Amino acid sequence: MFSSPLVLQIPSSMQMTDEQFFEFCQVNRDLRIERNKFGELLIMSPTDSETGNRAGNISGQLWVWSEENSIGITFSSSTGFKLSTGAERSPNASWMKLERWNALSAEQQRKFAPICPDFVVELKSPSDNLQTLKEKMEEYMNEPGIQLGWLIDRKQHKVYIYRPGLSEECLDNPASVSGESVLPGFILNMSKVW
C-alpha cells in the first residue's frame, strides 16, 4: 500500500454528488477515503496494527466514559462527517452531544452526517505528515459545533490541543489529557496510547 494519502484530482465536470461519494465509499470499504474541500479524493491504506491498537485504546476509553454519562455518543474511525466546506472527514475518534445528533434526520444519520462532532481526535501514524494533520485540525476548528480537538503524536509523545478561536497548545509527554468542560470527567490515560 502507500505511505501517504493518494490524492485523486477530479475534473470539475466529474465531481461526485454527496450521494455518489457515499456510494463510492461503500463499494470501496477496504480503503479509508476522505474528500477535501477542493473535491479531491484522499485514498489512505489501512493503518498499521500498532497504530490501530492505540486508536482502539483511545476510542475504548472515550466510549466507556460516554456510556457512563449518557450526554453524547461516540464514533469510530470509519465514520465520515460532511463539513460545511464540503469536505468529508473521518477522525480517528469523535464524540457528539446527544441533542446535536438527535437534531439530524434519520437519513442524515445513516449517511455521512452533515455535522462536525463536538470533539475529535487524530492519531498520527508513522506515515502521516504532522503539518497535514495540523491543517486538518484547523479545518475542524473552523466548523460550527466543534469545541475541542486533540492531535496525538505518539513518536514525539506530544498532544496538540485545539480549541475554536484559540492558538494550538502542545503538551509534552503528558500522563493523561483532560476532556475539560467539553467532556466533563473524561481523562485519557496516555500510557495506553504511547
Question: Which structural category do the helix and sheet elements fall into?
Answer: alpha+beta
Determine Rg (CA atoms, Å). Answer: 16 Å
**Oligomeric organization of the protein chains:** single chain
Helical content stands at 25-40%
Largest sheet: 6 strands, mixed
Order of helices and strands: EHEEHEEEEHHEHEEEEE
Could you characterize the architecture of this molecule?
With 194 residues, this protein is of the alpha+beta class. It is 27% helix and 26% strand. It contains 5 helices and 13 strands. The chain has helices at residues 18-27, 49-69, 98-102, 106-110, 130-141, and strands at residues 6-8, 32-35, 41-44, 72-75, 81-82, 88-89, 93-97, 119-124, 148-153, 158-162, 169-172, 176-178, 187-189. Strands 4-7-8-9-10-11 form a 6-stranded mixed β-sheet, sandwiched between helices. The radius of gyration is 16 Å and the shape is globular. The mean pLDDT is 93.
Please give a handful of descriptors for the protein shown.
194 residues, alpha+beta, three-stranded antiparallel beta sheet, six-stranded mixed beta sheet, single chain, 27% helix
